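It is worth pausing here to work through a concrete case rather than discussing structure prediction in the abstract. The textbook approach is simple: state the sequence, then state the predicted structure, then interpret. We follow exactly that order.
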Amino acid sequence: MKEPHDHRVKRLKMRSMRRGIKEMDLILQRFAEANLDAMDDAGLSLYDAMLSENDHDLYQWVSGQVTPPDTYADLIGRIVEQLPKTSA
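Step two, the predicted structure:
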């Protein structure tokens, strides 16, 4: 049986905010709240797969320390675009 969209979004939002690395909790929770409701099944599947990646890898991708795999490059780019801007 296919998981209803609203249940899937709720599950992914919970996974976004309970990561293990506090920085990723904050980054992904913010992104999830702003974007998951509007994502289609393919987008949610990609986000779900990304959440299975190691937090240290995710943080390095989001922080620009390491180039993300092609599979996640666009999604990571969207996450980075929504990070709060800091003034220098």
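Step three, interpretation. The mean pLDDT is 93. Helices lie at 5-17, 22-35, 41-51, 55-63, 70-81.
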